[in-house]
Amino acid sequence: MRPPAWRLERATYPYFTRIQTRYRDELLHINNVSIVGYYDEARWRFTRELFAQAGVPMRGRTVTAESRQSYLAEVFHMENVEVGTGVLRVGNSSCEIGQALFVGAECRGICASTIVFIADDRPAPLTASLRAALEEMLVRQLEPA
């Protein structure tokens, strides 16, 4: 199933992470397991930045409760890969993160993940400052052209 057009646009995502491909990532063709790792790395950098923006120490942790990927085109070693990341939805103790993998302006895949904020081994309500930081990073759902 083809994702909505706005999910494929660079302008949708407020935060970008450059990913260095590695030769071992399947001898030129990057496989799906490596691409999931790219999304995970970008999500980790994004949440670390959000905690810092919110002034919330990372005493708690985040766990990925669900993650869905759609692969739209191949990715190859030595291409410049960037993962765009933004917030799709904010809950009480979780949020849904939307991501897209780009090579130049071309979207090669998308990912949506639900992450849960944990403190004392339990889901923890978002602090007001963390909620505000998440809301500042909501994706920009673009109108169709």
TrEMBL record:
Keywords: Hydrolase
EC number(s) reported in the record: 3.1.2.-
A GO molecular-function annotation: hydrolase activity
InterPro entries reported for this sequence: HotDog_dom_sf (IPR029069)
SUPFAM superfamilies: Thioesterase/thiol ester dehydrase-isomerase (SSF54637)
Protein name: Acyl-CoA thioesterase
Residue spans crossing the bilayer: none
